[in-house]
UniProtKB/TrEMBL annotation:
GO terms for cellular component: cytosol. GO terms for molecular function: FMN binding; oxidoreductase activity. This is NAD(P)H-dependent oxidoreductase. InterPro entries: Flavoprotein-like_sf, FMN_Rdtase-like_dom, NAD(P)H-dep_reductase.
Length: 182
């Protein structure tokens, strides 16, 4: 089993990247043979049909990684009650047909959604918007359980995320996603 994680924030040390790293650790414990990679998509350009064919190398690379995955786990922050613009840009690239014989790489992929934010509502609104988009792109969304961690900066000590009472919820989501992919 191969899970690709997409952290919606490109910031080094972002809370959502750290949340993805914690999920990676949990999946390794639950399913020792599983592969869990965090997608590096920082070099994906702004979508522009003028450069769509042939796809830029960074786009071809992330498409191949997503295509090879058995499931995609999104970790999104919430900016102004929405998921970040760069994540939308990545999804725009991934939603385009690869070529005349291959459609888009997200089609029918199992997907899970989590997120942590500084605000008191977690990332529930951003997750709802993200689920709307990835459902339209024909991903198979695991709607329950989802994880929203509010007040994220209260869980950071010396720059490191410590989930505390949110950890069991991430563990349950990881177990559920493994079963959902199967």
């Amino acid at each position: 089993m191969h899970i690709v994680a997409i952290a919606g924030s490109l910031r080094t040390g972002s809370l959502n990247r750290q949340l993805a790293e914690e999920a990676q650790r949990i999946v390794a414990e639950l399913e020792p043979d599983a592969r869990f990679t965090i997608l590096d998509w920082s070099d994906v350009p702004i979508f522009n049909q003028d450069i769509e064919h042939p796809a830029p190398e960074a786009v071809a690379r992330v498409r191949a990684e997503v295509l090879a995955a058995d499931g995609v786990w999104f970790f999104t922050p919430e900016y102004n009650h929405f998921f970040p613009g760069p994540l939308k840009n990545l999804l725009d690239w991934l939603s385009r047909p690869v070529g005349p014989k291959q459609g888009q790489v997200l089609d029918s992929k199992p997907a899970a959604v989590s997120g942590i934010s500084a605000g008191g509502t977690g990332t529930a609104v951003a997750q709802d918007h993200l689920v709307t988009l990835i459902s339209f792109l024909n991903m198979r969304v695991m709607n329950k359980p989802r994880l929203t961690v509010p007040n994220g900066f209260t869980k950071v000590h010396d720059g490191v995320l410590e989930l505390g009472d949110s950890l069991p919820y991430l563990e349950r989501q990881a177990q559920a996603f493994i079963e959902f992919i199967r």
